[in-house]
Amino acid sequence: MEAVYRGFETSLLGLALCLGLGACLTLGTPRVSGDGLAVTLPMLSVTLAGP
């Protein structure tokens, strides 16, 4: 059972690392403006441009 918890914890750490790296790589890019879908959480913002 410990292996299941360790695997779950490792996958969450990997996800956090990937999200942090993606955020660092997109720091200098201009924001998308216009109509679209936007989801904002306390530490994560995702925007999808409209058609």
Task: Give the number of domains.
Answer: 1
The helicity comes to 40-55%
Question: Spatial order of the strands in the main sheet?
Answer: 1-2
Which residues sit in consecutive blocks of at least 5 with pLDDT less than 50? none
What integer is the average pLDDT?
78
Q: Report strand %.
A: 15-25%
Structural Rg: 15 Å
Helix-strand pattern = HEE
Biggest β-sheet: count, sense, barrel? 2 strands, antiparallel
Q: How far is it from the N-terminal to the C-terminal residue, by CA? A: 47 Å
Shape estimate: elongated
Total beta-strand segments = 2
How would you summarize the topology of this molecule?
Layout: H1 2-25, E1 36-41, E2 44-49
How would you describe this protein?
This protein has 51 residues and is α+β, with helices and mostly antiparallel strands. It has one domain (1-47). It has one helix and two strands; from the N terminus they run αββ. It has one helix at residues 2-25; strands at residues 36-41, 44-49. It has a two-stranded antiparallel ribbon with strand order 1-2. The termini are far apart.
